[in-house]
Amino acid sequence: MWLLLLLSVLGTCWAQYNPNTQPGRTSIVHLFEWRWDDIALECERYLAPNGFGGVQISPPNENVVIHNPSRPWWERYQPISYKLCTRSGNEEEFRNMVKRCNDVGVHIYVDAVVNHMCGNGVTAGRDSTCGSYFNPGKREFPSVPFSGWDFNDGKCKTGSGEIENYGDMYQVRDCRLVGLLDLALEKDYVRSKVAEYMNHLIDIGVAGFRIDASKHMWPGDMKAFLDQLHDLNRTWFPEGAKAFIYQEVIDLGGEAIKSSDYFGNGRVTEFKYGAKLGTVLRRWDGEKMAYLKNWGEGWGFMPSDRALVFVDNHDNQRGHGAGGAAILTFWDSRLYKMGVGFMLAHPYGFTRVMSSFRWPRYFENGKDINDWVGPPNDNGIIKRVTINPDTTCGNDWVCEHRWRQIRNMVIFRNVVDGQPFTNWWDNGSNQVAFGRGNRGFIVFNNDDYELSFTLQTGLPAGTYCDVISGDKIDNNCTGIKITVSDSGNAHFKISNTAEDPFIAIHVNAKL
Ligand code: QV4
Ligand code: CA
């Protein structure tokens, strides 16, 4: 009896760290700013067949409409109400997306913006994605409803009412982040409205949440609304399943607030990951790939089972948030594929792949003054994601997740799931290799000269297709072939001028 009780407690307390992806699906993709109808199509035609576990969607709740600048992507981080009504679609389209994706085993993770409402400088009116009235000056959001009582104005001790010093945890939690009206989450009423919004999404069928601006909420206040969440919808999830929670906390060290303050609520975004990986692959600050031998906790990152990891995110791919110039993005495509490949091959953390839209970057004094530009659109209507004959996306959707090298590494991660990190090799510089037990092996050449070595792969003897330079189709390799001997050894030759200077093989790509 005690054992059952213990297991049930462990089961629930563990649950919010469990991504709730179907067995054998080990990554999610952030389809940033996509419409719900396009996400539903992508689940069915691409994500399910290629083993993606889920989709992080842009905030689905009603947001302010910003005209200056014109419809910036970040207007979706200024809530007006919790109505499921945005440029991505309405509630009916949202429900349709969740059902169709869940039905093919691809789950939905919602970007929940619950620390604040819109900016205090926004003019009152109905200029919102669902036409709801709001009056920031009077703290009136009648569609929730929230009123003056529900904001932190009186609690914030800074002159401006805004966060002025990230060294002061009280300011960071109780003052306005860039002018965004800060909700009083110590109040039961506010907590109940946030829980009501999240439970509406859970009952529809979502699998979890990215909790925006978690650093700006007290962990205890977050626990108070998280504890009110329903179990996941039994149509698609087992009895008692809890929402996967990953909290956006930017902690590169040196601030009053630490990622570990939030471990009790769920996983946390590990921003050190992308910043360090970008520095290593760019070979800045004397960093080199040979140092990746102890990647993960060895580099001072949070415990692997608390980490949500990514190479770039929607903020730092355009200079917002954290990571600076080191962050690799689709603009740096050759190094980016290596970074995403490394992330997906390495066992550390739960992995999220970024999928972006292209915007007209324009640098002045080292800053992209077009960092605000919103999704591809026709007079404000988000453009459909068109699919080209070569399976890439049109209409300025980048679709990194459809790049062969990235798609195949999402599959690689699924194939090696649960296998240990083994057979590390390096040349003391930027040529490295490692395996995942007896199911996968990857080799990188980031030096300025050829890699040519015979390495112990740990894999069964046979001929393998390199899934970076090609695919295994029927019983043929469209790219490089690698022969593994009875002893598990294989010879690898990688030119430093190769289009993609890395090779990855696994047992499901074996002839
Ligand atoms: C400006 C001034 C304020 C002034 C205000 C008056 O800066 O001092 O009080 O006007 O209204 C936009 C503008 C910003 C403007 C604000 C309106 O860029 O200049 O303030 O709107 O108040 C995104 C963008 C922000 C954007 C915000 C709201 O990155 O530029 O602000 O959306 O539209 C920290 C946090 C971390 C955060 C990161 C960006 O710890 O949590 O900054 N990351 C998340 C999201 C991010 C989002 C927010 C948080 C806010 O990932 O995309 O910010 O929800 O590190
Ligand atoms: Ca706050």
TrEMBL record:
One GO molecular-function annotation for this sequence? Answer: metal ion binding
CDD domains according to UniProt: AmyAc_bac_euk_AmyA
Domain (Alpha-amylase C-terminal): give its ranges: 422-510
- What is its cofactor? chloride; Ca(2+)
Sorted UniProt keywords: Calcium, Carbohydrate metabolism, Chloride, Disulfide bond, Glycosidase, Hydrolase, Metal-binding, Pyrrolidone carboxylic acid, Signal
Signal sequence extent? 1-15
- Return the protein name: Alpha-amylase
Name the family the entry cites: Belongs to the glycosyl hydrolase 13 family.
- SMART domains (UniProt xref): Aamy, Aamy_C
Q: Which positions, given as ranges, span the membrane?
A: none
Domain Glycosyl hydrolase family 13 catalytic spans what residues?
26-413
Q: Which organism is it from?
A: Monodelphis domestica
Question: What is any one of the record's Gene Ontology cellular component terms?
Answer: extracellular space
EC numbers: 3.2.1.1
Q: Name the enzyme group at the top EC level.
A: hydrolase
